[in-house]
Amino acid sequence: MFHRNNLLRRGLIFGLAFCFSLMTQATWAAVTSSQFNLGGFLNSASPASFDLTALVSYAATHPGSQKNVTLSNGDVYTGVSLSAFLGSYLKTDPTVPKNDILRDYVVATGTDGYKAVFSLAEMNASFGNHNDIIAYKLNGANLTGSGFARIVAPDDVKAGRWVSNLASLQVGHIDYTPAAGGVSAQFSVNGQVANALTYDLTSLAAALPAHTVTVNTPPLTGASFTGVSLWDLLNLSGIVTNPAIKNDILGKYVVATGSDGYQAIFALGELSPNFGNISVLVAYADGAGNSLGNKGFAELVVPGDEVKGGRYIANLTSLTVISAVPLPGSVMFMISGLAALGFGSRRKTA
């Protein structure tokens, strides 16, 4: 069985860094960014930073990476695909037997410390397929008032994950721990929640109103499932957030784990009705009310995922909520880069 303590230890490390992040957000004001740092789970060829010239050059030398996002008011943002950009430098974990990218996420941070998490799977064409971009032009002109680059997430209901004055992109990865597998009979909701809870078939079915969904994408087109909303289930345990931090929910993700150690990350911003608003079901029966058989008593179902059903987690054993903030070393690297921009001279006064 998957060692939940690994995730909890990671959560503790992130918690310590979280305190550091609170200090930085409370102390610094936003400045206009002229570069962003790139770090984390990346290969040795990845550059340490990008400015406007480098970002435009990337688009020119990587065919298909340049993307446009047209807003309802007619404004057009131009930039590079966040998925393609990170994919150019992403490290591969040789220990993961399948769908390594499902364990990856990125933390986008602005010069004021505002941050948002994206799972790499939510942007990947084989899974969520969202057109999130690193924008550097608006209506054909360089950006003004939001730094040289900003994250634009066009599918979000609210623009909470549009990170202005982009200062840092830090890629994270959760380690793979092989497990024995087998048919699951219960799973836990744990991590950064007020009340860790354990569910079996009876308690899951009684926890929330049932929903039935029909999948309209391959490879399960036409299949129906009955279960409860993943977002609502996490909220039953009380996701721990800091009210002093704007949209703190956007700095967190949940790791869904199966009995064989197979895992997928979902950014809470992807799940939240205020932002990504995707539908993910914790299914406990098919559409006709029959059990899921060798998939265990519960399976994550993601009806909107394209092409592959990689984020369908059978034999669910845990849902772990984690704060995704840059590790201390990465934070210090980000600070050093911003200090070069005169960041330290723009501190808030009490």
TrEMBL record:
Q: Which SUPFAM superfamilies match?
A: Oxidoreductase molybdopterin-binding domain
| Transmembrane intervals | 321-344
Keywords (A to Z) from UniProt: Membrane, Signal, Transmembrane, Transmembrane helix
| Highest taxon above the source species | Bacteria
Matching entries from InterPro entries are given as: OxRdtase_Mopterin-bd_sf
Signal peptide (residue range): 1-29
Q: Write the protein's name.
A: Molybdopterin-binding oxidoreductase
Organism whose genome encodes this protein: Methylomonas fluvii
